[in-house]
Amino acid sequence: MTVDVNKAAGQAQETLLRWYEQHRRDLPWRRDIDPYRVLVSEIMLQQTQVDRVIPYFEAFVERFPSFEALAAAARADVIRLWAGLGYNRRAVHLHELAQMVVDRHGGQLPSTREELLRLPGIGPYTAGALLSIGFGQDEPAMDTNVRRVIARFAFDVPPSERELEARARALVPSGLASEWNQALMDLGSSYCVSRRPRCLLCPIQDHCRGRARTEGPVDPPARRAQTSYEGSTRYYRGRLLGQLRDLPDGEVARLEEVTERLALAGVAEPAYGWKLVGEELARDGLIRLEEQSGGIAVGLA
Q1: Mean pLDDT calculated for residue range 140-156
Q2: What is the count of structural domains for the chain?
């Protein structure tokens, strides 16, 4: 059995959009959609599960409801509000981005791919999500779920990256990119999952090339596996930053004292030393280092 994707596309689009209208996930960033809220949600969702992001998103946009409010905030306040969400460099990128939007773009997020990609923390996928969901442009948004759905739906064999992106763009229905991309995301998170896809329940199963294969659904080009968190550089960065979040605004503490508290909490010093961890965090704009007579002091940026 073969499926003509060009012929099936229209039927699949109509079916999937109808399914999405009835079964869409009720997520806070899908209410009162505007580019700022889309941006905050997409930055938070990078490498983080939806359920974990929801309370952070709601607290963040309540505290910082606009680019202007976020740009005017102290970096330390942004980092504290991000506590527990992980990948703290994202908070710095978001804060820097808000300041650039206010200073260079009059508080309005740019609406072209080229301008968006010049902003910190925005890559091809986030740019696509902003253009399609935030600005209603006919652009694909290629997150992991979308990549998997398109690869299975449209190809008999694993596609190249170029083939995958070209097909994703061709499938975007005119004027409905926001709904289409979010429908693909929901489908990929509910039925067209990575392992044991629920093909018999999929609304577009009749048009899918992947389901017709006896070997099982086709997967998109492999992504690099995520390394273990415990004992990683990210682990030590998070532990040190967590200690500094408890400091009062503007204050610093001796690095030696902070690392002693970490040792008492069961966090052993990394082989390359806490000083290097602090220097990396400082380069990323998360903390500041001060040379004092008693040694190095550290505090939130």
Answers
A1: 92
A2: 2
